[in-house]
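Quick illustration, no need to memorize.
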Amino acid sequence: MVRSAGEGMAPCILLHGFAQTPASWDAVAQRLQAAGHRTYAPDLYECKGDLKLPSVEEVLEGTEAGEDGEDVEGDANAKNVSGAVRDPLTSLDAVCDRVAAIVRLVAQVDAAPVLVGYSMGGRIAAETVVRYPNLPLAGLVLESAGLGPADEAARAVLAERNGAWAQRLRDEGVAAFMDWWETLPLFASQCALPAEAHAAIRAERTSRDAEPLARSLEAWGAHHQAAETVALGVLADLANRGVSVLYVAGVLDEKYSAVTARVRAAGLPTELVPDAGHNAHLEASSNFAGIVEGVLAEDVLDGDALARNVASKSRKIGYGA
C-alpha cells in the first residue's frame, strides 16, 4: 500500500503488528500524507508486495554479493539473497531480507526513508538494522517493540511461549484465539476506545488464517532476535552516524515503558505517549503522527536535539486520537 504525497519530502515505511494489516496505519498515513510525506505500508505476511513500485522481488533477485559475503552497500553481515524470493514466513532472516529490500527500493526510487515499526513490526525493523546496519535510512522509529532477549534463559522462555501460542492458534482457530488474546493486560487500555474502533480491531485480528499467524509466531518470534544489548549497540551506532533513532511507547503500557527506560539509559531518544497503551498509534494517532513528523522533518539530529524537537511537536498538537 502506497500513499502519494509531495515531491522532495522524506518518505516513511510503516510496518504493522501481529495479526494486523497495512490498513492499521491508515490514520497515521493520512496525517503524514497531508503533511507532504509519501508513505509505504507493506503486508509483512505476503511474499509479493503491493507497493506499486518496481518489484521488490527484482531488487532481491538483483542483489550482488562480493567475495567476502558483503553486499554492494557494504553491510557487514549481509546475505546473498539473489535467486528466488523466499516466503517471508520461512524465518526472521527471510522477512528481514524483504524489509531491507523495501528500504533499498524506496531509497532508490524516492529518497532515504524513515522506517517505523509497531510491536511485531518494530521487532522486525530493529532486527533488520541489526542484520543490515548500513541500510539507506533517514530515521528509525520503534513503537512498543521488543529489542531482543536479555539472555539465553529468556530466549528459551520466549521460544516455549511462542510455540505454545502457535499451537493454540492451530488447535482453537483464530476467533477463539483472539477472544483470549484481547484479554491480555497489554491491551487493557484499548477498553476505553469507542465501540466502532473495537469492531474494526476485531475484524482486522480475525481477517488472517490461523496458519500464517502461527508461523509468524514461530518464525518471527523474539526468541530469534539478537540480544537486547546487541540491538541497543546497533541503534547507538546508527544515531552516531546521523540516523534519527527514536523509541516510542504508551505511558499505560508498563512492559514497554520499562523497555523505554532501558533505551533512554543507553543514551538514545525516547518518547512516552500520555493516555495511550501498547498501540499508541491507534489510541493516540494524532500525537503519534506528530512524533513521526518530527523525525521526518530532521536530516541529522543528536539525541538531545531530537528529544527537544519531539517534545515541542507533541505540545503543539496535543494528545489523543
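Strands lie at 2-3, 12-15, 39-40, 114-118, 139-143, 244-250, 270-273.
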